[in-house]
Design a protein that fits this description.
The structure holds two protein chains of two kinds.
Chain A (H helix, E strand, L loop, with lengths): L2 H10 L8 H23 L6 H4 L3 H24 L6 H4 L4 H15 L7 H6 L3 H23 L7 H20 L8 H26 L3
Chain B lengths: L1 H15 L3 H25 L7 H14 L10 H19 L9 H4 L15 H6 L4 H11 L5 H7 L4 H21 L1
Helix pairs in contact in B: 1-2, 2-3, 3-4, 3-9, 7-9, 8-9
Chain lengths: 212, 181
């Protein structure tokens, strides 16, 4: 097939309208979400004292951190799906959840505490946190990568890592309603480690799946 | 140069809103620029330049299949050159070269520079043979026999919708085969 013939063929296919990436990503995440929720309700469930916990600002702050991570990672993912995009212009969005976390830690430091710092940091649920967040992230990560395959990222591994961040953000949001450790020190340690695991898996998978 | 790139942007906007003639003109207009850049990239990597047409076709397929990632309010050329650069790097890497491709290779092509294809490209043609029969027939009918969608539908006793689907799937799997070879 010579190039003129190829051009004619591509022109004949001009009527085909691919789905916008935002829509493709959203639909893929919606398809994957029930799997993650099934893992959550089968293995964990919402903590029993959730009604009282809601009045604790540090319980609510967990959601602010994880939702900020999910939202900023979704925005950066969509940005990186364009071939000429790089992390340089939008990457700082990913610092928003970290900023909220730092503010929460300093807030907690200024308050009188009954338990010592190391006890709050180590908490009771570190193992559950480190297993549940990656396990619940995995279906979302597969979905996100599937949706983002519509895109054309210049650096597939980086785009995959950000897809990992977004899946971990969503999974951690659900997990936070189970976890009884509300100290921002716990979140900064264990949630971050779990998120880093998912981001690494995302980078490995993305390097293959997101090539175009 | 700026004029040329503005024209591309206009053509691509028209193409996306359904103007096939504009799309055809755009692809014809960018091809010599891509060809010159591919040749320069190969030459710099010490590779025979007669493989440039395979790279050009690779880029054109990616432009086609990824055009929804172009932001219609942005200029077209930077988007095009980003895809072209990525595909050129891929092609050189596959040939065992790690090489830095300068984006200026694309932007600096002079409008007067219009090289003709050197050798007939083999990679797309080879992968075409590996496609499912229906997709291959439809692609061949439209590409090689220059039949319209309508004529192709009549020839294979398919609906026009089915021809369109086979055509698009064929192009997509062709690209996937080229990428994963």
């Amino acid at each position: 097939m010579d190039t003129d013939q190829l051009i004619r063929t591509l022109t004949a296919d001009n009527a085909y309208r691919p789905r916008p990436i935002g829509l493709a990503l959203m639909m893929a995440l919606l398809a994957a979400a029930p799997v993650s929720l099934l893992i959550f309700f089968a293995e964990l469930g919402v903590r029993p004292d959730v009604m009282t916990a809601m009045h604790n600002p540090f319980f609510d702050l967990k959601f602010a951190v994880t939702l900020a991570l999910a939202a900023s990672a979704i925005a950066v993912s969509l940005h990186l799906s364009r071939p000429e995009a790089s992390l340089r212009s939008f990457g700082w969005w990913l610092l928003i959840p970290a900023g909220i976390l730092v503010a929460a830690i300093s807030g907690e430091m200024m308050m009188p505490q009954r338990t010592p710092m190391m006890t709050r940091l180590i908490g009771k649920n570190s193992v559950a946190c480190m297993t549940a967040i990656p396990a619940m992230s995995l279906p979302l990560l597969v979905g996100a990568l599937y949706g983002l395959r519509q895109g054309a990222p210049a650096r597939p591994a980086i785009a995959g890592a950000v897809a990992g961040l977004l899946s971990a953000g969503l999974a951690a949001t659900v997990y936070a309603s189970h976890c009884t450790d509300d100290s921002p020190l716990f979140v900064a340690t264990w949630y971050t480690l779990a998120t880093a695991i998912v981001a690494s898996v995302g980078a490995l998978m993305g390097a293959r799946a997101l090539r175009y | 140069m700026r004029e040329r790139e503005d024209e591309w942007t206009d053509l691509m906007r028209s193409a996306i809103s359904g103007d096939d003639a504009a799309y055809h003109r755009l692809l014809k207009a960018i091809t010599p620029v891509l060809r010159a850049a591919a040749r320069r990239g190969l030459a710099r990597a010490g590779q025979p330049v007669d493989q440039s047409e395979d790279i050009v076709q690779d880029i054109l397929l990616a432009v086609h299949l990824k055009r929804q990632t172009w932001d219609t309010s942005a200029p077209f050329a930077p988007w095009l050159f980003a895809i072209a650069r990525n595909k050129l790097i891929d092609a050189l890497r596959r040939r065992g070269r790690r090489i830095f491709v300068n984006i200026d290779d694309f932007a600096e092509t002079l409008p007067g520079e219009t090289p003709e294809p050197t050798a007939s490209p083999g990679e797309v043609t080879a992968q075409l043979q590996a496609l499912p029969a229906r997709q291959r027939d439809v692609l061949q009918s439209i590409a090689v026999d220059s039949a319209s969608i309508k004529d192709t539908a009549a020839k294979f006793a398919m609906t026009e919708g089915a021809v369109r689907v086979a055509l698009h799937r064929g192009l997509a799997s062709l690209t996937a085969k080229l990428r994963d070879r």
